[in-house]
C-alpha cells in the first residue's frame, strides 16, 4: 500500500520531535498503522538543529501545506490561536485530516473546528494537546466509555509543577526555575500561560468536555496561578500532612460542572501529591472503574511527539472508515452533548486552608471561630504558631470542611474586617481526591 503523506507545520520542539521519531521508528509505526507514513512537506521559518532533513520539501508558508494536493494529513504544531485556526480550517476545507498538539486552539475554537470537520468528514485529533506523552484523551474517550464520570483532577502543566517542586525541594527561586523550564522547552511562548494557570485551564476544558460530554467552554473556567504562593504556606501545608499542587479540577455536580484551576492542598500520601518535576498526572473517577491515575511526561520534545504520532496512526487506520462510525471528537455523539452548565467559582464547593496573620491578643481565635461557625463553616483543625519576630504577628492556620465558595468569601471578608487581623487572609482550596 502507498504510504500516507503528511505535512508538518512547525518544526520547533514538538515538530522536531515528531519528525525525528517518525524517521527513527518508521518501520515499527508502519507495522502498527498498516502503511508507511511519509513526511511529504515541512513548513518552518527557522531550521531545527536537532533534525537532519534530507529530500523533504520545505516551505515557509504553512498554508501551502494545507492546500498541497499530495498531503493527506496536516500536523499543526505552530501553536497560538490565530494562524493555527486559519491553517486548520483551511486544511479541513481541503478535505485533509488534522493532528494538532494545540490545546489553546482546541479549548477556544474546538467547537467550530469540530463542526467544520464533521461537515467535511475529516478527523481532527488532539491527544498531544493534553498532558504531553500521556494518552489520557484516548483513555477517557475510549477506555472509560462505560462510566458516568464523577470528576477529573490533574497536574496538567509541567512547567508549573517543575517550579513548585524545585522551590519546595531545593529552595530555588521562582524566576530561576522558570528560566530553566524555558531553556528546556517546557514553558509556553508566553510563560504567564503556565504560571497563571491558563495553559492548565485549556487542557482542563478539553478533559471536561470529553469526560462529561459538554461543549468546550474555556471562557467559563476559573483560573488562579501559582505566583502568589509563599514558602511559608508550602511549609505549613507540609506540617499539616499536605502538598501544594497546581491542580485542575472538573467535577460533575447536581447543579452543574465545576471547572477550576488553582493551587490546591492534597494529602501528601496520595500518589498524585508525589508527582514531581515536569511530570503530569490525571486522576479520573468514574462510577464503574472507580479512580484511575494516568502519569507521565507532560511536556517535552519526544513525549509530546509520541502522542502526535499515536494520533497519526489512529487517523491512518480510520481514514477509510465511514465518518459516522468513528470515535466522536468529544467522546459523545455531537447531537448528544449536554447543556449542563459550568458553575461560577462562587457556586463551587471545596474545603479550605486559611492562613490568618493576627495580633497577639486574647480572644482573636474566638472571634475567628465565631465568624466561621456563624456561616456554618466547620473547622477541621487549627494550628497557631509562635509570634513572628519580624512583625510581631501570630500566624493562625486553619483547615475547614467542605463549604460553598460564596460562604467562604463572606467569611474571609468578615475575618479581614477584624481589628486584630492584619493584611489579607490566605486561602488555598483543599481536595482529598478519595
Ligand atoms: N507549557 C506546557 C507545560 C507544555 O509546561 O506543561 C505542554 O503542554
UniProtKB/TrEMBL annotation:
Its EC number is 1.1.1.3. The keyword Iron does not apply. Keywords: Amino-acid biosynthesis, Methionine biosynthesis, NADP, Oxidoreductase, Threonine biosynthesis. Residues 353-430 form the ACT domain. SUPFAM superfamilies: ACT-like (SSF55021), Glyceraldehyde-3-phosphate dehydrogenase-like, C-terminal domain (SSF55347), NAD(P)-binding Rossmann-fold domains (SSF51735). Pfam families: ACT, Homoserine_dh, NAD_binding_3. InterPro entries: ACT-like_dom_sf (IPR045865), ACT_dom (IPR002912), Asp/hSer_DH_NAD-bd (IPR005106), HDH (IPR016204), HDH_cat (IPR001342), HDH_CS (IPR019811), NAD(P)-bd_dom_sf (IPR036291). It catalyses: L-homoserine + NAD(+) = L-aspartate 4-semialdehyde + NADH + H(+). NADPH binds at residue 103. GO terms for molecular function: homoserine dehydrogenase activity; NADP binding. It is an enzyme of class 1 (oxidoreductase). GO terms for biological process: methionine biosynthetic process; threonine biosynthetic process. NADP(+) binds at residues 9-16. This is Homoserine dehydrogenase. It comes from Pseudomonas brassicae. The lineage of its organism: Bacteria, Pseudomonadati, Pseudomonadota, Gammaproteobacteria, Pseudomonadales.
Amino acid at each position: 500500500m502507498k504510504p500516507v503523506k503528511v505535512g508538518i507545520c512547525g518544526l520547533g520542539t514538538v515538530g522536531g520531535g515528531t519528525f525525528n521519531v517518525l524517521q527513527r521508528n518508521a518501520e515499527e509505526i508502519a507495522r502498527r498503522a498498516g502503511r508507511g507514513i511519509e513526511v511529504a512537506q515541512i513548513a518552518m521559518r527557522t531550521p531545527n538543529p536537532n533534525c537532519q532533513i534530507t529530500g523533504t520539501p520545505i516551505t515557509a508558508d504553512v498554508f501551502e501545506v494545507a492546500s498541497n494536493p499530495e498531503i493527506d494529513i496536516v500536523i499543526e504544531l505552530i501553536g497560538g490561536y490565530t494562524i493555527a485556526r486559519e491553517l486548520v480550517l483551511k486544511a479541513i476545507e481541503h478535505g485533509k485530516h488534522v493532528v494538532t498538539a494545540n490545546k489553546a486552539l482546541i479549548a477556544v475554537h474546538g467547537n467550530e473546528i469540530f463542526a467544520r470537520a464533521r461537515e467535511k468528514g475529516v478527523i481532527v485529533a488532539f491527544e498531544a494537546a493534553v498532558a504531553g506523552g500521556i494518552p489520557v484523551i484516548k483513555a477517557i474517550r475510549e477506555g472509560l466509555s462505560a462510566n458516568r464520570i464523577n470528576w477529573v483532577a490533574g497536574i496538567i502543566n509541567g512547567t508549573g509543577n517543575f517550579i513548585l517542586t524545585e522551590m519546595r525541594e531545593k529552595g530555588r527561586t521562582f524566576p530561576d526555575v522558570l528560566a530553566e523550564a524555558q531553556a528546556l522547552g517546557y514553558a509556553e511562548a508566553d510563560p504567564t500561560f503556565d504560571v497563571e494557570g491558563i495553559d492548565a485551564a485549556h487542557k482542563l476544558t478539553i478533559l471536561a468536555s470529553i469526560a462529561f460530554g459538554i461543549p468546550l467552554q474555556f471562557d467559563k473556567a476559573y483560573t488562579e496561578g501559582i505566583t502568589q504562593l509563599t514558602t511559608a504556606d508550602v511549609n505549613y501545608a507540609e506540617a499539616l500532612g499536605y502538598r501544594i499542587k497546581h491542580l485542575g479540577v472538573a467535577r460533575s455536580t447536581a447543579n452543574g460542572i465545576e471547572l477550576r484551576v488553582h493551587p490546591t492542598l492534597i494529602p501528601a500520601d496520595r500518589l498524585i501529591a508525589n508527582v514531581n518535576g515536569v511530570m503530569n498526572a490525571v486522576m479520573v473517577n468514574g462510577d464503574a472503574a472507580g479512580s484511575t491515575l494516568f502519569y507521565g511526561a507532560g511536556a517535552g520534545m519526544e513525549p509530546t511527539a509520541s502522542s502526535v504520532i499515536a494520533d497519526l496512526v489512529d487517523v491512518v487506520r480510520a481514514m477509510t472508515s465511514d465518518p459516522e462510525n468513528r470515535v466522536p471528537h468529544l467522546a459523545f455523539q455531537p447531537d448528544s452533548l449536554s447543556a449542563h452548565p459550568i458553575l461560577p467559582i462562587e457556586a463551587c464547593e471545596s474545603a479550605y486552608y486559611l492562613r490568618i496573620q493576627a495580633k497577639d491578643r486574647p480572644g482573636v481565635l474566638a472571634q475567628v471561630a465565631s465568624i466561621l461557625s456563624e456561616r456554618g463553616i466547620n473547622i477541621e483543625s487549627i494550628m497557631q504558631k509562635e509570634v513572628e519576630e519580624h512583625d510581631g504577628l501570630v500566624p493562625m492556620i486553619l483547615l475547614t470542611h467542605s463549604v460553598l465558595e460564596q460562604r467562604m468569601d463572606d467569611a474571609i471578608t468578615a475575618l479581614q474586617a477584624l481589628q486584630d487581623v492584619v493584611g489579607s487572609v490566605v486561602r488555598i482550596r483543599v481536595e482529598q481526591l478519595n
